[in-house]
Amino acid sequence: MNPALRADFPLLERTLDGRPLVYLDSAATALKPRAVLAAEEAYATQMTANVHRGKHALSEEASVAYESARKRIARFFNADPECLVFVKNTTEAINLVAVGLCLSSDDVVLNAGGEHHANLVPWMRRARVELVPGDPCEPVSLDAAMAAIARHRPKVLAIGHASNITGVIQPARALCEMARAHGVITVVDAAQSAPHLPIDVEEMGCDFLALSAHKMLGPTGVGALVGRREVLEALEPLCVGGGVVERVTATGYTLKKIPYRFEAGTPPISAALGFAAAVSYLDELGFDDIVEHERRLAAALSQSLCEIPGVEVLMARREPRLAIAAIAPRSALVGPDALARLLSDGHQIMVRSGFHCAHPLFDRLGLEHGALRASAYVYNTVEEVQRFGEVLRDLASRMVV
Length: 401
Ligand code: PMP
Fold this sequence. Notes:
The chain folds into two domains: 3-31 and 286-397, Aspartate Aminotransferase, domain 1, CATH 3.90.1150.10; 36-284, Type I PLP-dependent aspartate aminotransferase-like (Major domain) (Aspartate Aminotransferase, domain 2, 3-Layer(aba) Sandwich), CATH 3.40.640. 38% of the residues lie in helices and 16% in strands. It has 13 helices and 17 strands. The chain has helices at 34-46, 57-76, 90-100, 121-126, 142-152, 172-181, 201-204, 229-233, 269-285, 287-304, 336-347, 359-365, 382-400, and strands at 15-16, 19-20, 22-23, 84-87, 108-111, 128-131, 156-160, 185-189, 208-212, 223-227, 245-248, 253-255, 311-314, 324-329, 349-350, 352-354, 371-375. A seven-stranded mixed beta sheet has the order 4-10-9-8-7-5-6, sandwiched between helices. The site of 4'-deoxy-4'-aminopyridoxal-5'-phosphate has 14 residues, from helix 3.
C-alpha cells in the first residue's frame, strides 16, 4: 500500500503525549479519510434538506444525492440498487431479517460458531440456534456444515464472513451454494469482510448480506442490508411510519416497494453520502492492493505474536485471513483492560479489550478474562504491527516474572 495514503486520514496526525499514535482497532471502527468527511460536510453546507419529502431545489438535490449514493454502494457489491436498504448498522440489518422472516421458536438457525452477538442474539430471540462444530482458528469444514444441515434441517444459515476475533475467513460462496441447494435461507454478516475483501453478491449467492459503513472507512450510523429481490420483497419491515407508505387511510396502509418500505423515518442522509465516498475511496485504492497489504499485515501480526509468554493467541492459522488477532492473558494479574490501558497510555497503541461481543466463544475456550484484540487496516504499516508485538512481548515478560 502506498504509505502516502496515511496523509488522507486526519486522525493519524494526532499525537498523544507528543508522540504519534498507532491505531490497531479498526475492527471496532475504521478511521475516516478526508473524502468521506468532505462528502458529509458538503451535505451539511450545500444541500441540507430531507429526502423524498418535498419538491424544493434543496430537497430534490438531497434526494438525488441520496439515491446516487445507494447506486454507488450497490455497484460496489454488484447489487441491484433497489435491493439495497440503508440501515443503521450490521446489527440492525440482521435484526431486520431475523424479525422480518417471521420465524417460529421451532425454526433452526445455523451459525458457524464464534459469531458476533449481532449475528447470534437476534436469532436466539426468534428461533433455536445450532452450531456447525469447528476450530475458531480455522474456516468451517464444508463436510461439517453439510452434516449440520442434514442433522438440524435449518431454515436459515447465518454466517459471519470474517471473524472479528481470529480474522478467519469463511468459505461464504460454497456455504451459500450448499445451503441454498437444501432450501436454506442464507444470511452473511459481512461487517468484517466488506472492508477487506471484494464482495460480489451475485457471485457469493447469498440471500442477504449485512454490513456497516463505519468499519469500511465510512461514517457511523449507516450500513446496508442487501437482499435477493424475492426474499427482500417477502420480508416484513422492522419499523413502519413515515417514508415507507404509499397511502394511509383511516383504517390501513399500503407499503411502498423495496427498498423504501424498510426505511422508516428520516434516513441517515449525510452518512449515506459519506458511505458512498468511502466505497469510492476503497475502489480507488483497489482490492488487489488492499488484499496484498492485508496479507503482509497478517503475516507480521502472526510473526510478532509468536511465543509470547503467558498469553494465548487466537488467530487464523492459514491464509487468506484478516490482520486480526486476539491475545488472552492466562493470568488474571494483569487483565486485558489493564493491558490495553498500558499500551495506550505508555505506548500510544490503541487496541480493544474485552469479550468482543462473543461471550459463547470465550466460554467455550475457557478464557474467562477476555482478550486484547489488535486489528489492522489499509493505513497501518508492518512496522506499527511489529512495534505492537515488541511492546506486548516486553509487557508480558514483565508480567510473568
Ligand atoms: N458482526 C461482526 C463480525 C462484527 O465485528 C460487528 C462489529 N464489531 C458486528 C457484526 C456489528 O456491527 P455494528 O456494531 O456496526 O452493528
